[in-house]
Amino acid sequence: MQDLKGRVAVVTGGASGIGAAIVEHFVQQGAAVAIADRDIDLAESLVKKLQADAAAKVIALRMDVTIGQEVEAMVAQVEHAFGGPDILVTSAGIGLRKDFLETTFDEWNRVLAVNLTGAFLCGQAAARRMVKRGYGRIVNISSGAGVRGIPGRAAYAASKAGLISLTQVMAAELGSHGVTVNAITPGPIDTPLTQEMHTGAIRAAYVGRIPIGRYGSTREVAAAAAFLASEQASYITADTLQVDGGMAATNYIINI
Ligand code: NAP
């Protein structure tokens, strides 16, 4: 069954990791998808791979989510190429593992700019068009770090907590216009970002706190995003969906 047939989706950070799995899943579900990422080479190689299926509608657009003009130009290009967009997933994000007292002003600003301001700019550009057409689905990729005081995560956790709050306000304002806005809080997922940031000790500590006993796959996050982006989730908005193997129910806080 193709739950997203005829829909137009933008996936920021869609060239890699969770975003790339969402792009792949949405294309399989029948959506026309724009991969919006600053890594255009990676985005274009994903387009090539997906175009092995002649029915796939997918394009790659180079952009930086922190630059308002690039965001607006990207959404306008999507509208020109496919119409819409009907769906926005904000997966572009960067990590930082640094204690509060060690975090520099520049690091703080950079993490907030990509993870929070980026979602604000993309959400606004997409939602303006969704409101005009009376339909939209926005899914913000937050993090379990946004709902816990995890040591070493000051900037990252604050950006992801802010994203949950932004999701709720957007949902409250946009619901009457036919636009739903939800967040996903993944637990540890195997991606290039975690392969770089999670040492063996961190991985072992996380796995010990995950009831399902393993890291999640990008495909498992993509399935949740597809549900929230589909007609089936028509009465779900302002929600935060945990895709974390049950980790939020246990002691989430590791200090490594
Ligand atoms: P990833 O593999 O590093 O993918 C992120 C993508 O976003 C990369 O292609 C990256 O490009 C792009 N990007 C970064 N900054 C950008 C910008 N300013 N403008 C446009 N694109 C930009 O990361 P991931 O692990 O899939 O994470 C995706 C999202 O899930 C992030 O928001 C992350 O915080 C969240 N998350 C991940 C996990 C996890 O365990 N992996 C858990 C919870 C939440 P570059 O490679 O050039 O930076």
TrEMBL record:
Which SUPFAM superfamilies does the entry link to?
NAD(P)-binding Rossmann-fold domains
GO biological process entries: monocarboxylic acid metabolic process
Q: Name one Pfam family in it.
A: adh_short_C2
- Domain (Ketoreductase) spans 7-187
InterPro entries from the UniProt entry: KR_dom, NAD(P)-bd_dom_sf, Sc_DH/Rdtase_CS, SDR, SDR_fam
Where do the TM regions start and end?
A: none
Q: Domain of life of the organism in this record?
A: Bacteria
> Which family would the database say this protein is a member of?
Belongs to the short-chain dehydrogenases/reductases (SDR) family.
Name this polypeptide is given: Glucose 1-dehydrogenase
Which species is this UniProt entry from?
Paraburkholderia megapolitana
